[in-house]
Amino acid sequence: MKTILVPTDFSPAAENAARYALFLSQHLRADLLLAHAFKVPAETRVAAQSAWPLEDYEEIRQETKHELDLLRHQLEKEAAKEVYPPVYQTRINGVTELGNVTTTIRNLVDHHRAPLVVMGMSGGGLVHRFLLGSSSRDLLEKATFPVLLVPPKPIPGQLSKIAFATDLSKTDIDIIHSLTSLARHFNAEILIAHITDAKYDPVEHRRQVDEFLHEVTCKANYPKIYYRHIQSMDVDHGLDWLSEHGMIDMLVMTHRQHPVLERLIKGSHTQKLAKHIRIPLLVFPPGVHDICF
């Protein structure tokens, strides 16, 4: 059975991400694993040789387990409120681990073979530092799995149109193939969006697009894939237009040397970038292939 990993610090933003993960899980026929990681406070170590008191560790572990149980029960109640029976009755479990957040997530993904990690875009404590600090950069640099970042405000429970921002790189074809396994569960459209400035060569661009779409058709056997060229002064403004007028429910990008994604990861929240994160942002690691949702 598939498992979606949901790191949490119990903040409102993290809980909102967990609710969206629940929505996805019911359609993907996947279970949820709520995960919380904590570190040993440095000030508890009197000397390098001294161990952290076992009773202190056990107290924190029990507290986080209690918080995880509360969140799990809350999600189970929300799932039970559905007017119509969900596609799949998600099983929800929780785990608390002592250690580094990034390492904990990677280990849990490997152990459970989770195809997806769902996190809040902002929050308090560990998740806030994880998303906007060095830990987030470390995870996205090393991740071999997709990470879905969910904005802090509630997201409608729908996924009818997914936009994939591409530079027409051949490696993106495998990602589109993986996206079809997600889209099929929702009968969703996949919009391939290529953003260029006014300096592009129309003839060369048309040839590149034709070759790219031909390979997409051969690789991804999915009828609801469409292409759109967005001409803009830069990628920022093009994504602004796509987010505001594209009527999309999710934006997908590949983690390569992309200035927009880099600014999001590093926490530079300009007004333009804020428009991009009003919808969930799915980030694929470079070189990924054969992800099955």
Q: What would your notes on this structure say?
A:
By secondary structure, this protein is an alpha/beta fold. The chain has two domains: 2-150, HUPs (Rossmann fold, 3-Layer(aba) Sandwich), CATH 3.40.50; 161-284, HUPs (Rossmann fold). The chain contains ten helices and ten strands. It has helices at 12-28, 54-80, 101-112, 125-132, 134-142, 172-186, 202-219, 235-245, 259-266, 271-276; strands at 2-7, 30-38, 92-98, 116-120, 147-150, 161-165, 189-196, 225-231, 250-254, 281-284. The protein has a ten-stranded mixed sheet with strand order 3-2-1-4-5-10-9-6-7-8, sandwiched between helices. Helix 3 packs parallel to helix 5, helix 4 (125-132) crosses helix 5 (134-142) and helix 6 packs across helix 7 (202-219). The longest helix has 27 residues, at 54-80. The protein is elongated, with a radius of gyration of 20 Å. The model is unreliable at 43-47, 124-134 and 267-275 (pLDDT under 50).
